[in-house]
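TICKET #2291
ISSUE: user wants both folds in one file
ATTACHMENT 1:
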Amino acid sequence: MSKLIIIQGPTASGKSSLSLEIAMKLGAPIISADSRQFYKELSIGTAKPSEKEQQMATHYFVDSHSIHDLTITSAEFMKLGRQKITQLFNEGNEYVVVTGGSGMFIDALIDGLHPSPSDASVRSDLNNEWKNKGIDILLEELKNKDLSTYDHIDVNNPMRILRALEVIRVSGKTLGEIRKQEKIKIDHPHLRFGIKWNRQDLYDRINTRVNEMINEGLLDEVKSLPLKENLLIQNTVGYKEWISYFENGMSFEDTVAMIQKNSRNYGKRQETWMKRYSDLILLSPYESRTMIDQLIKHL
């Protein structure tokens, strides 16, 4: 029977290397569920699989979109990802590996979403309004149309605000009303794995990864991007911190330290997210058996 192998968890925990190893062993394709690796312009700061690694196993949803187009939502990923998974199983693949640190996107893919209306033209209009008029006028609209969401939303996250307004403008319904509708789970069995590091070891790995990104040329990559104009980049750890470097005179060393701090905080939030899964199988990097051996015994 065909089966999904899900490998998820905190940044720098070793998901990508383990996913590549199991994919090569099983001859399985990989679905990336990293919401930033979709974008071809974001490579170093997203720890994207190298060209060589992508040749070792077929990857989908890596370099599939551009930051200059509209961002891909979790609802769109659910639809496109499920279509691709069904196609891969129909082509005779026994396993498909799903990997990434974006828990919301993996949950959408596996567990489904409440039917959430979207419209590219409405999203484009909202994005232009945000750029030209600022976020305050959009917050006021959200307050008037959906006070409950307004009271709980992160006002420092424009993407959430724009998405809430997109739902309202398209459907006339609030997020609360939308969430009362039923979710539809994916129609394929799956096993879900995570990698359990001691907290300090994970933090050390994150700090090391950031240093490696710097050595690989992260600053030059950021210089080539429309940092001030792009909402997605401004909400991405590893990129958003450079705004203070360019605009406010933050030192290079302090900028790197801020990326490390924000990456550690992100990793901690990802660990917290993992606690919601009752089906999670934790693999240990401290055992004498390799993690791939630990994983295979569950297949």
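ATTACHMENT 2:
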Amino acid sequence: MHDGVESEFVENEAVVVRKRRKGIYILPNLFTLAALFGGFYAVVMAVNGHFDRAAIGIFCAMVLDSLDGRVARMTNTQSAFGEQMDSLSDMVSFGAAPALISYIWALQGLGRWGWLAAFVYVACAALRLARFNVNTGVVDKRYFQGLPSPAAAALVGGFLWVMTDLGFEGAERLWGMPIPWITFVLALYAGLTMVTNVPFYSFKDLSMKKSVPFAVLVLIALGIAVINIDPPIVLFGVFVAYGISGYVIYFWRKAKGLQTSVIATSTDEPDERGLH
């Protein structure tokens, strides 16, 4: 009788299983936080009147943002938390920060037109990031659907960097044209291009693990040397060319009768999530 009661007690005994607590991967999120700090630093520097440092903060955020996704894959530390954190960081560094520093520097002199251009840029950055998150699995990984937000931020911040490096103030004229209105047009172009369906090459099909000819390393070294000649002008020129390249690809495909949309041309999950 005693054995029967004991066996019944063992069978009915509740087994408590402790679930392993989910943690947050430190390394990739450190890069994301550093990119977020770059955007915050840009706004603080703009408020204090250091616009050249503000532009540099945006470019530093862009470099760090391109690294967090790669680091996560190299260390096998991808997570849904990291993806959401990355998008929020991008909204600050490449959405709010460029709009605010350009408004403080030049656009506020245009009154309502100034804050209208700044808001359009911010709104388009938010829409572009949201669309990227929901279309990740149906967009050809070789192309971005619309201008990536870091490239748009580089257009706005790069122009400011070039002007301050040349000694121009936000309220002056450049070749007879008011700088505030040039900034206005550039902010609208960058913002609206982010939400178009124009394809921009993503460079995601270039693998860092593959061997390359020796000449490639020589070209990379030359590229670094050219950038060091005059970083503001060279970097701004590169992103101006990239900002136009999407329309060149679009009209070239249209002229050839090829599909211009990057939607549903590939069902592969894009390899890169660091550069939106």
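RESOLUTION: both attachments delivered.
EXTRA DETAIL ON ATTACHMENT 2: Residues 157 and 263 are 29 Å apart (CA to CA).
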